[in-house]
Amino acid sequence: MADEMNNWRESGTRTTGMKRGRRVAWLLILTADVGLLAWGAMAALAPERLPGPGSAPILTAGYEGFTKGSWQELAATSPMTAAYIVLLFRLYGAYIVAFGLLAIAVTATAFRRGDGWAWWALLVGNTIAFGAAMTYDWIVGAIGPFELSEYLGIAVVYGALAITAPFFGRDG
Q1: What is d(CA 169, CA 19) in angstroms, rounded to the nearest whole number?
Q2: Partner of 106 at 20 to 30 A CA spacing, among 56, 100, 117, 168?
Q3: End-to-end CA, the chain
């Protein structure tokens, strides 16, 4: 009887700790994905106002970093090419918004509840979404203080997922 009571107490303490870990984790992931959604909304709606390195707009900094040419010169000599690049960047922002909304919904419902599939969905989805943004920054050579928030965001997500990892036999 005493052993059963000790097991129950230990189990109750462990469950409380796991619930606390999940509560912290879902709030951390939610915060990171809200930040990513805000970035995507800015990219989709106002890419010319989305700051990049040196306070230049990220699209301008990205184009100039990749081509070593001037965005102003491109816009003056080939306005439709510049418009097409802006359109593609806006579309990329819209995809990030779509991911952000889905990630927020999964985080606030299934992950918060402890559904195992949600853990995996957030791992894969955030890796792709944050990874794509970081890869763009590296390829075009446009990494500034704002872009470093992507590294912080994915680190927060990975940390939160680590404390709730389903394969460690814990429920986080």
Answers
A1: 14
A2: 168
A3: 28
Beta carbons of 122 and 103 less than 8 angstroms apart: yes
At 109-136, the pLDDT tens digits run 999 999 999 999 999 999 999 999 899 9
Query: Is the per-residue pLDDT at 7 higher than 50?
Result: no
The whole model's pTM is what? 0.82
Per-residue pLDDT of 40-91, as tens digits, reads 999 999 999 888 888 889 999 999 999 999 999 999 999 999 999 999 999 9
Report yes or no: 62 and 52 within 8 Å, Cβ to Cβ: yes
Do residues 139 and 66 touch, judged by C-beta distance below 8 A? yes
Which residues are registered as beta bridge partners of 107? none
d(CA 129, CA 43): 14
Residue 37 backbone phi and psi in degrees, to 5: -60, -45
Q: Which two tokens stand for residue 3?
A: 């052993």
Contact 75, 82 (CB under 8 A): yes
